[in-house]
């Protein structure tokens, strides 16, 4: 969504960094996962083999308008969502679309002229096909392909926070916050009532929307609708921004825009944050201020060099040393803002959003993809919740077993073991607990074996990576596969929730989305991209303090290395 938006901003930056993610076929990668997630893969093998035309018809997300007709898009058209039910799963993912915002009469008129699809439902198709975490394809989406999927189109331009109904004096209404609540209410009779897990996810403005609405959604389900068995969690993608001083004066500084916008939208922010920032409630649109006040569990994904952040910072193409430095500091500031975030995945790349991209599994830090990290986090928080529910009313008929579960859990904890067991059928607690008992014994045995093997094979464990700069993706893939197979078991152990790329320069590691030359569509690396746009390599050489000859002859890896060190 944002890519489309960027085209309209006509900013230098979007010209220079117009980046797409390459569509890797992904076949190899999924085969890779099989040894680890055998349970998932085997259980769901059959549906994948079905007749593909049939499959597509069955599997499209279908349009549903909200039951409350007075909750609308900007232009007064009826709001709604797209739904794909999965009767074999009790998990739901509700995804909030992104696409910037507008914040005053002028910017909203502009948006109406140029990006009307973000303000009305009048042209919504009957069905939709969304990739990544909302894909029904097991290869593209190994962990959530079979869950209930809900895609909520963004048509309120308010970062999903507005509570302003239509009025004769205003051109537009802003009802994003109402839409989220109504979507939940309308999903109850469609099956959400009996669910065990709800993930509220979103990208870009939708990612910010997740943070703004998460606690309210939880409250609505648990306190108002008394559906306390539903575990409510959030995943925010590329919606965590910083209210820093822009690099150059700009006609739309983020802080100013949000402040105006909040007024115009009658923006609603989480209660505890509003209390914290009484006089400046608009601060609550910024993740690092909002996060500490949130009660619900949140997983944060953010590119360290987010295109939208660079855009609002108005930094432009990094030609001068000042610009290089500013971009660097941006990455550092972002990294710092994650200091107290318990679940974070932040690759060092220039890009924007990830969750619904078809090749999202190729985004990795230390060979763990964002999908795997999310899956792992989901499992962990599920277990924590089970513990909390132990004394509760919901699982009352399994109470006897929960005592045992707790003991087992504690045993696992002392082993430091990270459970990656597929959890789709968690409703069926009894069944699972019998299986888990059996698995536990096997696991402990395997772990002992593993530790023996590892201490022999990998004295320091890791750093056996393929070269950063190999221009041969097939080779890279092959190497990394063999590495992965060797590391099959250690990977499980690496189920940690904070993953921040260590290197500090954009694109400094090989798993970044490929950069594309916007004119030819060819893949290229960062330096080539800069050159192709006529980046003055003399300035770069100056900034780095070396002569142009040396620069031109420099190996890319070396050059990146040098750029990386510039910040320190
Ligand atoms: C898929 O379904 C169509 C119609 O139901 C049928 O004609 C076709 O042979 C099927 N293809 C495969 C590969 O099963
Ligand atoms: C519809 O939504 C509006 C705005 O939230 C609310 O005031 C109204 O009571 C709702 N109507 C129904 C029937 O729920
Ligand atoms: C939820 O489960 C109950 C009991 O199985 C069933 O009667 C009810 O229809 C279900 N609700 C939905 C919306 O499927
Ligand atoms: C993290 O928490 C500590 C202690 O509460 C606080 O001093 C620090 O400012 C926090 N960091 C961020 C980035 O919020
Ligand atoms: C790139 O990532 C690998 C592991 O994924 C890491 O070992 C290496 O240090 C990273 N490179 C830099 C320059 O940080
Ligand atoms: C919990 O217990 C109550 C009363 O004993 C019963 O009505 C209810 O069905 C039980 N809930 C579940 C989920 O079994």
TrEMBL record:
Q: Where are stretches of biased composition, namely Basic residues?
A: 435-459
Alphabetized, the UniProt keywords read: Signal
Ranges for the region named Disordered are 432-484
Protein family according to the UniProt entry: Belongs to the pectinacetylesterase family. Notum subfamily.
Q: What is this protein called?
A: Palmitoleoyl-protein carboxylesterase NOTUM
* Transmembrane spans: none
Locations of Polar residues compositional bias?
461-474
What would you give as a GO molecular function for this chain, any one?
A: hydrolase activity
* Keyword Protein transport set for record: no
**Record's signal peptide:** 1-28
- Which Pfam families does the UniProt record give? PAE (PF03283)
């Amino acid at each position: 969504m944002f890519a489309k938006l960027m085209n309209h901003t006509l900013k230098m930056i979007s010209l220079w960094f117009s980046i797409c993610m390459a569509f890797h076929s992904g076949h190899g990668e999924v085969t890779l996962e099989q040894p680890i997630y055998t349970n998932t893969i085997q259980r769901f093998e059959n549906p994948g083999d079905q007749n593909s035309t049939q499959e597509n018809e069955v599997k499209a997300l279908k349009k549903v308008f909200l039951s409350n007709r007075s909750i609308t898009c900007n232009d007064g058209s009826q709001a709604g969502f797209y739904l794909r039910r999965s009767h074999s799963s009790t998990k739901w993912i509700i995804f909030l679309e992104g696409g910037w915002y507008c914040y005053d009469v002028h910017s909203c008129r502009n948006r109406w002229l140029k990006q009307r699809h973000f303000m009305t439902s009048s042209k919504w198709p009957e069905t939709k096909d969304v990739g990544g975490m909302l894909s029904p394809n097991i290869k593209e989406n190994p962990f959530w392909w079979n869950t209930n999927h809900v895609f909520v189109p963004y048509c309120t331009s308010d970062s999903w926070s507005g509570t302003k109904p239509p009025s004769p004096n205003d051109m537009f209404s802003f009802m994003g916050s109402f839409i989220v609540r109504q979507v939940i209410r309308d999903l109850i009779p469609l099956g959400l009532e009996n669910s065990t897990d709800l993930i509220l996810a979103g990208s870009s403005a939708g990612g910010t929307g997740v943070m703004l609405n998460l606690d309210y959604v939880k409250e609505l389900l648990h306190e108002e609708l008394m559906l306390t068995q539903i575990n409510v969690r959030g995943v925010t993608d590329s919606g965590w921004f910083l209210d820093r001083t822009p690099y150059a004066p700009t006609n739309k500084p983020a802080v100013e825009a949000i402040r105006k916008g909040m007024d115009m939208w009658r923006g609603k922010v989480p209660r505890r944050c509003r209390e914290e920032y009484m006089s400046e409630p608009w601060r609550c649109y910024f993740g690092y201020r909002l996060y500490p006040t949130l009660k619900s569990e949140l997983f944060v994904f953010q590119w360290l060099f987010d295109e939208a952040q660079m855009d609002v910072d108005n930094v432009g193409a990094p030609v001068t040393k000042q610009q290089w430095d500013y971009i660097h500091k941006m990455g550092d500031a972002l990294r710092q803002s994650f200091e107290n975030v318990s679940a974070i995945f932040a690759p060092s790349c220039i890009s924007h959003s990830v969750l619904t991209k078809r090749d999202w599994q190729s985004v990795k830090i230390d060979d763990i993809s964002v999908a795997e990290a999310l899956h792992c986090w989901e499992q962990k928080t599920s277990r924590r919740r089970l513990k909390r529910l132990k004394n509760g009313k919901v699982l009352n008929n399994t109470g006897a077993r929960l005592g045992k579960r707790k003991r087992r859990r504690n045993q696992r904890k002392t082993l430091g073991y990270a459970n990656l067991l597929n959890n789709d059928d968690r409703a069926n607690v009894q069944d699972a607990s019998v299986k888990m008992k059996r698995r536990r014994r096997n696991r402990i045995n395997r772990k002992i074996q593993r530790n023996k093997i590892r201490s022999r094979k990998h004295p320091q464990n890791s750093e056996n990576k393929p070269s950063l700069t190999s221009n041969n993706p097939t080779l890279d893939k092959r190497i990394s596969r063999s590495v992965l197979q060797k590391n099959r078991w250690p990977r499980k152990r690496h189920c940690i929730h904070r993953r921040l790329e260590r290197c500090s320069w954009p694109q400094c590691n090989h798993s970044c989305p490929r950069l594309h030359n916007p004119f030819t569509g060819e893949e290229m690396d960062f330096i080539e991209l800069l050159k192709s746009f006529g980046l003055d390599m003399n300035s770069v050489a100056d900034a780095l303090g070396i002569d142009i000859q040396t620069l031109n002859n420099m190996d890319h890896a070396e050059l990146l290395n040098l750029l990386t060190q510039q910040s320190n």
